[in-house]
Each structure stands twice: as structure tokens, then as C-alpha cells.
Amino acid sequence: MKKNPLVTICFLTYNYAQKLEKALKPLINQSYQNIQIIISDNQSTDNTEEVARKIASRYQKVVYRKNIPDIKIDEFNDISNKDTTGRKKTYDVVFNHCNSCLKSGIIQGELVIFCHQDDIYHEDIVKDQVDFLTINEHVPAVFTLGNIINEHDKIIGKYKLPKELRHKNIYYFEEIFKGILNHGNTFLIAPTFMARIELFEHVGLFNDQGPFGGSDDLEMWLRILERYPIGIIHKKLINWRVGGRGKKYNNLRTSKADFFKVMDYYLEEKKYSKKNDIKSLRQYHYQKDFDDTLRSMNFLINGDVDQAKKIINSSFSRQIFLAFFENVKIIRVKVMALKIILFLGVNLGFGKYLGKILQRIV
Q1: Do 157 and 99 have their domain in common?
Q2: Residue 224 near residue 199 (C-beta atoms within 8 A)
Q3: Any domain includes 270
Q4: Each residue of 276-331: pLDDT tens digit?
């Protein structure tokens, strides 16, 4: 890679006219200035195009494109929405948008990063990532850590690397996969993903119409890791905003999380279960149980006491409690308490009342 490479920032936006300029400022004012910013507008129905074109007229490095999905939208249902009919095929609108940018022919940079409109980027994120990829020429992609903010820009949490991954910054499949088995996909932050553009020629595009739903990003990360190492910069260079699409997807969700579709595919179909230790696999099954507890609560809130009871009664086992005590966290303690309350409530005949109480709280 040549010195001072051009970086293309694909800024994915939809109906964000009022906040667009504020969201773009941290990217326009990056400390690394050899950048191309593509405002990629996914068919906004407000005046996003007008605002974006005005911004582009003031900054030479900014260009505007209107995203034209390469599928017939009326035949598909975005995975973040609830399709009650079950008649439509699903697709992931965000990663379909990323793929569209990659196929557009507009990207000029040697490196590309996909930035989301709700998040706030540190002024050095591009510089630090370019420096990392320049030094580590064998690494095709890099992530950073970050903070979690609410709608008022207040920091309410942090993305942290698992302790076992903190001693280095270049990683291979086995250690990342094991980290995810033990801790979930809590440290590979999608909107910090910067890659060499030629990477997609080797591994393909995001599987936006495949079986993995809202976890197309995780499937891509693992697909890359099967062939190449990745980097993680141990700095919080993004303020990732909670809510938005993720909140919409998880709102009273009763289906299993898409995360498990990816992990089960690698564990079962690709036989990685044979390459991992019993403790890590037990922690992964605990994550499933954790998810089942939340699903049981949501069934109860929706008034389906029988389904809530079925899930919660089948979730207690020696292995689950062993996994809990192997990795005690505050959030796990809270969900374990919820699990016990749900179990007692549905089995003592208070399911409907408990559901109404939870509906007010959640």
C-alpha cells in the first residue's frame, strides 16, 4: 500500500436531513485528510438529497449518490421489521446498502469504511486505522473499540475486549471465535470496520439476502478470519449510539437472535465445535439460555403464557448454572434473577399479571 493512501468513507444515510451536517462534521474534520466521503442516500423521503448536495458543493472531498437497491423492495422484508405474513423473503437493508456502494464504481480509495449516520466518530479514527494498515501490510481489515451513547450523546457504556485478547492487536480465527463463544459478539464494532478495497474481491460481498438475518456482519468477519488475520485498535474511536435499527429489531423479539444462526452454522455445518473446548461451548449455550430468558419475558408481555412457560421451564440445567458461575457479570445476575421470577410467576399461575407488570417496566 502506498504512503498516505486515499480512504473512501461511505456514509450511509436515510431520512436524516435535519441532523446530516452535524453527523458529517466529525468525518469532514478528520485529522487524516486524504479522504473521499460518499453520502449514500438510501431513497430518503425527506429533503436529505437537497441538504447533501449543498454540503457536497461546499466540500470538494464530499460526493452524493442516491442508492438504488438491486432488488425489488416490495418482494422483500427488511430483517429489522416484523413480517407477520411470512410471505416475503428477507434482506438486510444496511448491508445491501454497503454492497451497493461497493458495486457502484464511485469508490476511489484503497481503503474503505462504512459509517452510520447515528454514530459519532473520533477525529483520529481514520488516521489511526490507516497507520495500522500501513504498518501491518498482511492484515486486510481493522476495527476499533468505542463508547456506547444514548440519544442525548451521554456515554452509558463501553465496548471492551475480553481479557484474554488484550495483550495483542492482531488476531486469527481461533482466538476471535473462542472470544465470541465466551462473550458474544461484543467487541467487533461494525461501523468501525475499515478494509482494503481488494479484500472484497477475495472474500465476496456481505450476504445480505442469506440465512443470517441481522448478523450478516458477523458472518463477514468470520469469513474474512478464515483466510486472513484482522486488527483491533485498543482505543475508543467511536461513540456508537444505542437504539435505532437494533432497538427496532429487538423490540419484544420472540424469535431466536440471528447471532445464533451464524454461530451454529460455524459450529455445526463447518464443524468448529470439534475445535473448541467444553468450557467455551458451555458459555455459548449459556448465551442461548440468556436469550431464551428474554424471549420468554417477551412472550409473557405479548400475552402468550403457555409459550413463555414452555421456554422458561426447559431452560434450567446444571450446565447453565455452571456456566453462570464460571463467568459472573452484573448483567448475568440481573437476567438470572429475571429467569427465576419468570419461572415462579408462570408456574404459580401469575403469568398474566406478571406480563402486565413487565409491560409497564420494559
Answers
A1: yes
A2: yes
A3: no
A4: 999 999 999 999 999 999 999 999 999 999 999 999 999 889 999 999 999 999 99
